[in-house]
Design goal:
This protein is α+β, with helices and mostly antiparallel strands and 337 residues long. Helices cover 22% and strands 27% of the residues.
């Protein structure tokens, strides 16, 4: 497991730079109290469909259709780990194993129900109107990324080999990441962003936006987040017309950021292992809003807010929390020495 201390800049210089590189402060809502409750906050219908040995249980999901078809076509599996062999059937499902906060109140750890960092007005979230004739606004917020193996927390399905057992951990706090505070600094650290800041790359995102509206994504267009905007720059600024949609965009961007930092993995298609994910596979992820209002569905990356954000922004609540579901494939069977 990659810990927070392994990813953040070290020394007082890095923290000082993070505190100085900030947008214009703005009033943000108070940090909500109450620790994470997986029983009441997680939308458990999002784990479906489940495919076991080629037999599908639950409603269809266009997002994971290709993986479900692959599991059904090749239901048997065999894995080797050292001198141990596992023979069995493939099982695929959506696993809730990560949480993401998008907060305008710096240091507000919604999963812990506490504000752990006194920034004295620095790093504060903001909303500004753009005077470019587009009638849009720009949001700045911080992001917290948690390792949250819900199945392990509830002591369920722990015998499956693809269920993570890393324990709860705070993997990222962008308050301590200078590049999140400045898009310019972020472009220096991630120079590939320059390749996608052109009209041709922007036009390609129109196709991804259309696919997202239909419940799908186009994985090769990794620099696009459908209707949520562009993946780059990897910073806390995002243009928006819908606040909830903007929160989801920053949560998705934070997930992509974890991959660029080497802290994102996905299960292999044979169900035998996890492999690094430096560039995300968008079709493997979907988000469920948990705070400030529990979402009624899980949404694919880039799904237009008009289809799911209605009545999800409670008055005076500008901090949000999402559960990140990952499409998992594992080989469940009998191990032999």
């Amino acid at each position: 497991m990659i810990r927070l201390s392994h990813l953040l800049p070290t020394g007082a210089a890095g923290i000082a730079l993070a505190l100085l590189a900030q947008p214009t402060p703005a009033h943000a809502s108070k940090c909500e109290s109450g620790a994470f409750n997986p029983i009441t906050k997680v939308r458990w219908t999002c784990i479906f469909p489940i495919t076991i040995g080629g037999v599908k249980v639950g409603p269809s999901d266009p997002l994971g259709k290709a993986l479900d078809a692959q599991t059904a076509a090749k239901p048997l599996c065999a894995c080797r780990k050292g001198a141990t062999f596992t023979f069995g059937v493939k099982v695929s499902f959506w696993s809730p194993n990560r949480m993401v906060d998008v907060v305008t109140e710096p240091g507000c750890m919604m999963a812990l129900g506490a504000d752990i960092m006194a920034t004295h007005g620095r790093l504060q979230g903001s909303q500004t109107s753009l005077s470019d004739g587009t009638n849009t606004r720009k949001l700045f917020a911080q992001m917290h990324y948690y390792v949250a193996p819900v199945w392990k927390m509830l002591d369920m399905f722990t015998d499956l080999p693809c269920i993570e057992d890393d324990g709860f951990d705070v993997a990222m706090m962008t308050e301590l990441l200078p590049t999140w505070q400045s898009a310019t600094l972020g472009a220096i650290v991630q120079p590939e962003a320059i390749l996608f800041g052109n009209p041709a790359a922007g036009l390609a995102c129109m196709a991804d936006s259309a696919a997202a509206a239909a419940g799908k994504v186009i994985d090769p267009l990794f620099w696009c987040m459908g209707s949520w905007g562009a993946t780059y720059p990897l910073a806390g600024d995002i243009h928006f017309g819908d606040s909830v949609e903007a929160w989801a965009g920053l949560a998705a961007r934070g997930t992509f950021l974890m991959g660029r930092l080497g802290a994102l993995t996905i299960s292999s298609e044979d169900g035998c292992s996890f492999r690094p994910q430096p560039i995300w596979t968008k079709s493997r992820y979907k988000l469920q809003l948990m705070e400030p209002v529990k979402g009624g569905q899980c949404v694919n990356i880039g799904r237009p807010g008009s289809l799911w954000t209605s009545a999800k922004h409670a008055p005076a609540h500008d901090n949000s929390q999402f559960m990140l579901f990952e499409k998992v494939i594992c080989c469940a069977g009998i191990s032999t020495p």
